[in-house]
Task: structure prediction
Amino acid sequence: MLANRLSEDTSKSICLLEAGPPDRSLFVHVPLGVIRMPYHKTLNWRFLSKPQETMNGRPIYIPRGKTLGGTSSVNAMVYMRGNTLDYDDWAAGGNKGWSWNDVKPYFIKAEHNEQFGEGEHHGAGGPLNVTFPNETSPLERDFVEAAGSLQHPHNPDFNGNSQDGVGQHQVTQKNGRRWSTAMAYLKPAKNRHNLTVMTNSPVSKVIVKNGRAIGVELPGNNILTANTEIVLSAGSILSPKILMLSGIGDIEELKTHGIEVIHSLPGVGKNLQDHAATSIMLKTKSRTPWGFSWPKFPKYSLDLFRYILFRKGVFASHLVESGGFMRTEADLDRPDIQLVFIPGHRAPPPKQLEVGHGYSMVAVLLRPKSRGSVTLASANPEDTPVIDHRFYEAEEDLEVILKGLKEIRRIVHADTFLKYQPTETIPGKDVQTDAELKNYIRQYGATIFHPVGTCKMGDDSQAVVDKRLRVRGINGLRVVDASIMPTIVGGNTNAPSIMIGEKASDMIKEDNR
Result:
């Protein structure tokens, strides 16, 4: 995204370095490929956290995109901005220029919304195509009806006046294909004479001389130099890793691995936040919900042709069609639980898919109090960093998500779904007490893959970047990705990350005139 905006100025030369390969795989571009993308051996970093003491000693899986478009090329494509108050909190925390009124124009600038068009809340003509999927499961309507019977109002637009309620997700798709940032921004710019794109080019470290970033080192001691700026956009796991390998970070952490200290920034890698989640899964006798079975094979074969010819059918689905937001206490100023409905069969962990049909629902903890970290395993750039979420270290987090779990259980067992003859497979009918449910959360809980905050923006002692996303104390170096979020937003993080890139591109242009 930045490569597009910055290369609009033809007097500047831009080089984009991507650690992974090009985004040519059909699994990237066909929406149903989302089943495969979180576990793809080439296009995903497939990180694992350290074993979590608060989750019965289990490591937590953390997929991150490793191809052009980053995680926007492997995610579930849900377009969600978060709550407006989230950004006001950023501004109130010392980040002037990041309130909702400040960032909203950048969401709108990026967007081309097929249904809502240009208006108070949405944009038309931007590079990022946003739409409702062209075909959905009948269970999407059932979910809205079931939730409505339990006093969850229908919300036709989660990015409109209010988040509260349930409804269908808009997604980053176009003509039945994934619309990643690579498709939206990079493809239109790839033939510009002043833009060079290098794939399979992981950055080992940033080279700093006399307090200024002057280049980057790639494997094999290959050096690329920069005359103006270096922008680090490696995400909340790898951006802090690269900074630490460059000698920028907590002094004790760097000394532990024998890394020369270039600049002390104790907040690098701290403040890790993510959206912890827990699920209810049901298997059905009915074959109407999506799933794998021999009787449905002819329909799916037909769907393949429908997708090839018309971009419709199950292959055009991202499987996370519907959801919503709720408040576990009436006096909260914004939702603290996100609801995600999946109209297809999921197998209990560690499996993901198996023969059968069904549906499931996820409760997501939007505002965790717990904080984790990303640290180095060694000074070797090829070693995976140590990721420690510390989920549910704050007891309050467990209490809130427990309420969310109870509510999604009520929804999935509403009378609306009885026609599908469901049976709860996980946690199962024998898990009922609060103690049993809490243990279930610890044993089977995961995340919905939204790590943020490890290079946080601010003006306090733990801040890594300032309000213009410049690394504090180092000239010519910025971080532009979800790691700069001081607090996690209440919703999916793809759209906010694109907003951050849009705003950053303007700041970079302004600062280098």
